Amino acid sequence: RDPYSLTLSFFQHALNGGIRRYHVASVLCQRAKVAMSHFEPNEYINYEKLEKNINIVRKRLDRPLTLSEKIVYGHLDDPAKQEIERGKTYLRLRPDRVAMQDATAQMAMLQFISSGLPKVAVPSTIHCDHLIEAQSGGEKDLRRAKDINQEVYNFLSTAGAKYGVGFWKPGSGIIHQIILENYSYPGVMLIGTDSHTPNGGGLGGICIGVGGADAVDVMAGIPWELKCPKVIGVKLTGKLSGWSSPKDVILKVAGILTVKGGTGAIIEYHGPGVDSISCTGKIARIAYLELSVVGGMATICNMGAEIGATTSVFPYNTRMKKYLSKTGRADIAALADEFQQYLVPDAGCQYDQVIEINLSELKPHINGPFTPDLAHPVSDVGAVAEKEGWPVDIRVGLIGSCTNSSYEDMGRSAAVAKQALAHGLKCKSKFTITPGSEQIRATIERDGYAQILRDIGGLILANACGPCIGQWDRKDIKKGEKNTIVTSYNRNFTGRNDANPETHAFVTSPEIVTALSIAGTLKFNPETDFLTGADGKKFKLEAPDADELPKLDFDPGQDTYQYPPKDGSGQHVDVSPTSQRLQLLEPFDKWDGKDLEDMLILIKVKGKCTTDHISAAGPWLKFRGHLDNISNNLLIGAINIENGKANSVRNALTQEFGPVPDTARYYKKMGVKWAVIGDENYGEGSSREHAALEPRHLGGRVIITKSFARIHETNLKKQGLLPLTFADPADYNKIHPVDKLSIVGLADFAPGKPLKCIIKHPNGSQETIMLNHTFNESQIEWFQAGSALNRMKELQQKSS
């Protein structure tokens, strides 16, 4: 029998019996079709189209292609005519699928409902992972979340059923781990409404974080636009050993490139070191690690978001084949083998920049505080902390999350914990563990890892994002209390984990977090330092070793997936007009055809301004489906250059200082347009489009900065705002919070043509500066229509 096929009767049995790990393929043609996922048995991988498109483009460009180019150009809407120039042209692409987490899915689905379309055009899923707050532990926290968020979960469940979107229930796990286990595969192009969607690059896919409006385009069957990415090559040589881990690769890269060094680029890992990443055994008691899919490559790709990269990717290799087979997708691995030449870079391909890292020389790293690119070797961080006045005592160690919760990660942490337990020790710091998925939770429970981590003093949290995104009801400190935490997470912005601006958060590998939690101090270096056992004897922790994958099959745990019905047209989706959690959207106003004159400045931001500063998470997550309510957090974390304070700006009409959202609402009530002035890399971090929706909803029209993060700039365009950058960054200093601004020449708004800004000072003097933009013709139409969604509706009306 064809190895890629199942009989029809077995196929029916697999579906009706709820079997979750079988991959079903069609028997309807000579060359077996292979399903993208066993949850969508009639949606097939189309490597033939990828091959055809790549060959068309390779012939046109007449040069070897990087892996990134192969997958991106292989998904072009029109490969024969598409203009292609790295870093300059906009590509029109056809992604294979869409994934949305519950906090961003609310607004994405509300926008899709507004489009009037009956069903999504590509396979799409919703994942409930962001709304579960860490308090008491997994089961209790999950029950509480289901009760508190029942209205939102019901909306997402019924909207998914009506519009053909798969629904992963609360408790299923974090979106990125679910994607890795079920949906990512070599050569896929997937977009997700979360900035850490690149996690799927660990399985050889181009997986890109976007805002909800971009997701709506793809779900509507419209070609998706992306500026043609540059490609940064990271060449890996040597082998990891001892306490060094795959996490240290990306921590090192972040230190080299900084938080904006990857903007507009795909990070492509290559070289002989790639095949050496996964835990496979010990030689002379030294653990030589090879980059595994789940334990290494995905971690590295996940944190590419922290350097502003469009995404990150690894070439197809035997590690991916092994992981696909272990997760019930051997048919995909076999098909990928047939098309392998299209899933690896061409020999002689050229990168825009090359970074080389010798894994044999790489030391364990820890990055922070307050930014993920402040890199330190673990051996140095204690001394640096003392010099800088950072607290060296560690209050809490936290492992897991989407970045580091693979089976191998949990095993290596358990290996460290087991050594300490053997000497009668437990963690000096509080210690928490977040499994990435129900499958990981169930498997580490079965195999004993979870109990070892409990025995050392750990608390197992729900399969959800939890403290990583600020969903943490922290009780051990008061707000404003200076303290240190260490995590295996990906992001450590000010106040991100616990809303306390005095929490010094450091990110590192889960095994280093475990070791530091046992020691209780940043001054401990597990490579050289000794601990004292309960018997008073000193001992040294050995570098941990663990299996890359379980010896038995993964335990899938509880079934938490809801299939969309074949016909969801009769499904009712309820949004109460009195709801405080959900609100149907009203179209934004169209551009009136006039220049934007005499705009007030809502705030001139000083320094770093992430999407967490623009639209905070944590307790505000509950309003992600209600635009007016969530707008009450607009820019409350941004620092006002006028007074050095957060959430305190001058109302130019009353001269009184007050909260940013209140001031914006006052301007809107008075019919006054306003602008925001920002610094470098404005909007870095999360993909949350609320950071663009909120200023638009409250009357903002222009955001002027030295530079933008990619996703945020696109989100602003999608909502009809003007993201503009100073032609001369020094002009940032010419604008004062009390000035008025006019953007003139909008009647001639065109791609590549700078716009003129007139600065009017209170003393009557004026200055003129030039502002650049990255709008193309279709994006200018978004601005003119009031938003991308408005423009979509205009085109639908014309076609009908």
CA gyration radius, whole angstroms: 26 Å
Mean pLDDT: 92
Please report the distance between the alpha carbons of the first and last residues: 48 Å
Q: Name the shape in a single word.
A: globular
Mind describing the biggest β-sheet?
7 strands, mixed, barrel
Strand arrangement, major sheet: 28-31-32-33-36-35-34
Helix and strand content put the structural class at alpha/beta
User: How many separate helices?
Assistant: 24
Strand percent estimate: 15-25%
Residues in helix, %: 25-40%
Number of beta-strand segments? 36
Low-confidence stretches: 1-30, 278-289
Explain how this protein is built.
The protein is an alpha/beta fold. 29% of the residues lie in helices and 20% in strands. The protein has 24 helices and 36 strands. The strands form 10 sheets. The protein has a 7-stranded mixed beta barrel with strand order 28-31-32-33-36-35-34. Helix 4 (102-115) crosses helix 6 (150-163) and helix 14 crosses helix 16 (449-455).
Short recap of the structure:
With 800 residues, this protein is an alpha/beta fold. The chain has 24 helices and 36 strands. The protein has a seven-stranded mixed β-barrel.
Quickly list its features.
800 residues, alpha/beta, 7-stranded mixed barrel, 24 helices, 20% strand, disordered N terminus, Aconitase/3IPM_dehydase_swvl, metal-binding, 4 iron, 4 sulfur cluster binding, Aconitase/IPM_isomerase
